[in-house]
Amino acid sequence: MNAPIIRPILKKDNPHIARVIRKVLVDLGVPKVGTAYADKTLDTLYEVYQKPRAIYYVIELNGKIIGGGGISQLDNSEENICELQKMYFLEEARGLGLGTQMINLCLEKATNFMFKKCYLETMTYMKAAQKLYLKNEFTYVDGPLGNTGHYSCPVHMLKDL
Fold first, then answer.
1. Which of 13, 41, 83, 109 has the lowest tally of Cβ within 10 angstroms?
2. Is the pTM value of this prediction over 0.85?
Protein backbone atom coordinates (compact mmCIF):
# COMPACT_ATOMS: atom_id res chain seq x y z
CA MET A 1 0.00 0.00 0.00
CA ASN A 2 1.24 3.49 -0.85
CA ALA A 3 1.55 6.24 1.73
CA PRO A 4 -1.17 8.90 1.75
CA ILE A 5 -0.19 12.20 0.17
CA ILE A 6 -1.47 15.65 1.06
CA ARG A 7 -1.65 17.98 -1.92
CA PRO A 8 -3.49 21.12 -3.06
CA ILE A 9 -6.97 20.45 -4.42
CA LEU A 10 -7.46 20.08 -8.17
CA LYS A 11 -10.68 20.82 -10.05
CA LYS A 12 -11.17 17.10 -10.71
CA ASP A 13 -11.24 16.51 -6.92
CA ASN A 14 -14.44 18.55 -6.40
CA PRO A 15 -17.00 15.71 -6.49
CA HIS A 16 -14.76 13.37 -4.50
CA ILE A 17 -14.03 15.71 -1.59
CA ALA A 18 -17.68 16.84 -1.48
CA ARG A 19 -18.71 13.17 -1.19
CA VAL A 20 -16.11 12.61 1.58
CA ILE A 21 -17.31 15.61 3.59
CA ARG A 22 -20.98 14.67 3.28
CA LYS A 23 -20.28 11.04 4.22
CA VAL A 24 -18.29 12.02 7.31
CA LEU A 25 -20.98 14.46 8.42
CA VAL A 26 -23.75 11.89 7.96
CA ASP A 27 -21.71 9.17 9.69
CA LEU A 28 -21.13 11.47 12.67
CA GLY A 29 -24.80 12.48 12.87
CA VAL A 30 -24.14 16.15 12.17
CA PRO A 31 -27.22 18.24 11.30
CA LYS A 32 -27.59 18.86 7.57
CA VAL A 33 -28.54 22.49 8.15
CA GLY A 34 -26.33 25.06 9.79
CA THR A 35 -23.17 23.02 9.07
CA ALA A 36 -20.74 22.44 6.21
CA TYR A 37 -23.22 19.89 4.80
CA ALA A 38 -25.47 22.71 3.62
CA ASP A 39 -22.72 24.94 2.21
CA LYS A 40 -23.61 26.00 -1.33
CA THR A 41 -19.91 25.90 -2.21
CA LEU A 42 -19.30 22.31 -1.12
CA ASP A 43 -19.38 21.01 -4.70
CA THR A 44 -16.94 23.65 -5.98
CA LEU A 45 -14.17 23.76 -3.39
CA TYR A 46 -11.41 24.06 -5.99
CA GLU A 47 -12.99 27.28 -7.32
CA VAL A 48 -13.76 28.61 -3.83
CA TYR A 49 -10.12 28.47 -2.79
CA GLN A 50 -8.77 30.19 -5.92
CA LYS A 51 -8.38 33.52 -4.15
CA PRO A 52 -5.63 35.28 -2.24
CA ARG A 53 -4.67 33.90 1.17
CA ALA A 54 -6.66 30.70 0.77
CA ILE A 55 -5.75 27.08 0.12
CA TYR A 56 -7.45 23.72 0.36
CA TYR A 57 -5.64 20.39 0.56
CA VAL A 58 -6.87 16.88 -0.11
CA ILE A 59 -5.46 13.61 1.14
CA GLU A 60 -5.10 11.00 -1.56
CA LEU A 61 -4.45 7.31 -0.97
CA ASN A 62 -4.06 4.94 -3.91
CA GLY A 63 -5.91 7.36 -6.19
CA LYS A 64 -8.82 7.88 -3.77
CA ILE A 65 -9.56 11.11 -1.89
CA ILE A 66 -9.92 10.21 1.80
CA GLY A 67 -9.91 13.62 3.45
CA GLY A 68 -9.19 17.31 3.23
CA GLY A 69 -8.83 20.63 4.99
CA GLY A 70 -8.06 24.24 4.23
CA ILE A 71 -7.79 27.81 5.37
CA SER A 72 -9.29 31.07 4.19
CA GLN A 73 -10.15 34.51 5.54
CA LEU A 74 -12.88 34.21 8.17
CA ASP A 75 -16.17 35.18 6.51
CA ASN A 76 -17.73 38.46 7.61
CA SER A 77 -14.82 39.49 9.81
CA GLU A 78 -12.79 42.67 9.49
CA GLU A 79 -10.03 41.21 11.63
CA ASN A 80 -6.95 39.46 10.25
CA ILE A 81 -8.28 36.01 11.15
CA CYS A 82 -8.37 32.89 9.00
CA GLU A 83 -10.62 29.92 9.51
CA LEU A 84 -9.57 26.28 9.46
CA GLN A 85 -12.26 24.93 7.15
CA LYS A 86 -13.77 21.66 6.10
CA MET A 87 -11.22 19.41 7.74
CA TYR A 88 -12.83 15.99 7.46
CA PHE A 89 -11.35 12.51 7.05
CA LEU A 90 -12.93 9.20 6.11
CA GLU A 91 -12.57 6.47 8.72
CA GLU A 92 -9.62 4.88 6.91
CA ALA A 93 -7.70 8.16 7.18
CA ARG A 94 -8.10 8.45 10.95
CA GLY A 95 -5.46 7.37 13.44
CA LEU A 96 -2.60 7.71 10.93
CA GLY A 97 -1.34 11.10 12.06
CA LEU A 98 -2.89 12.79 9.02
CA GLY A 99 -4.88 15.22 11.17
CA THR A 100 -1.68 16.50 12.73
CA GLN A 101 -0.01 16.76 9.32
CA MET A 102 -2.99 18.58 7.84
CA ILE A 103 -3.36 21.06 10.68
CA ASN A 104 0.38 21.79 10.69
CA LEU A 105 0.35 22.41 6.94
CA CYS A 106 -2.70 24.68 7.18
CA LEU A 107 -1.30 26.65 10.11
CA GLU A 108 2.04 27.06 8.33
CA LYS A 109 0.19 28.47 5.30
CA ALA A 110 -1.88 30.73 7.56
CA THR A 111 1.33 32.14 9.01
CA ASN A 112 2.80 32.56 5.51
CA PHE A 113 -0.39 34.39 4.51
CA MET A 114 0.25 36.76 7.46
CA PHE A 115 -2.92 35.93 9.39
CA LYS A 116 -2.71 36.81 13.10
CA LYS A 117 -5.22 34.24 14.38
CA CYS A 118 -6.91 31.04 13.24
CA TYR A 119 -10.53 30.24 14.12
CA LEU A 120 -12.56 27.05 13.81
CA GLU A 121 -15.98 25.66 14.62
CA THR A 122 -16.90 22.09 15.48
CA MET A 123 -19.47 19.95 17.25
CA THR A 124 -19.48 19.13 20.97
CA TYR A 125 -19.30 15.39 20.40
CA MET A 126 -16.30 15.60 18.03
CA LYS A 127 -13.95 14.92 20.93
CA ALA A 128 -11.04 13.55 18.86
CA ALA A 129 -11.03 16.69 16.71
CA GLN A 130 -11.14 18.93 19.79
CA LYS A 131 -8.26 16.97 21.32
CA LEU A 132 -6.22 17.60 18.15
CA TYR A 133 -7.07 21.30 18.19
CA LEU A 134 -6.19 21.68 21.88
CA LYS A 135 -2.89 19.87 21.26
CA ASN A 136 -2.19 22.50 18.59
CA GLU A 137 -2.81 25.38 21.03
CA PHE A 138 -6.35 26.30 20.03
CA THR A 139 -8.42 27.53 22.97
CA TYR A 140 -12.17 27.68 23.43
CA VAL A 141 -13.88 31.03 22.91
CA ASP A 142 -17.34 32.07 24.01
CA GLY A 143 -19.48 32.37 20.92
CA PRO A 144 -18.83 32.52 17.20
CA LEU A 145 -16.56 34.93 15.35
CA GLY A 146 -17.43 36.27 11.91
CA ASN A 147 -20.49 34.70 10.33
CA THR A 148 -19.79 31.35 8.75
CA GLY A 149 -23.43 30.32 8.52
CA HIS A 150 -22.66 27.25 10.64
CA TYR A 151 -25.09 28.10 13.42
CA SER A 152 -25.43 24.42 14.36
CA CYS A 153 -21.75 24.24 15.40
CA PRO A 154 -21.69 25.16 19.10
CA VAL A 155 -17.93 24.82 19.74
CA HIS A 156 -15.70 27.76 18.78
CA MET A 157 -11.91 27.77 19.07
CA LEU A 158 -9.14 30.27 18.32
CA LYS A 159 -5.35 30.18 18.06
CA ASP A 160 -2.84 33.02 17.97
CA LEU A 161 -0.40 32.56 15.10
1. 41
2. yes
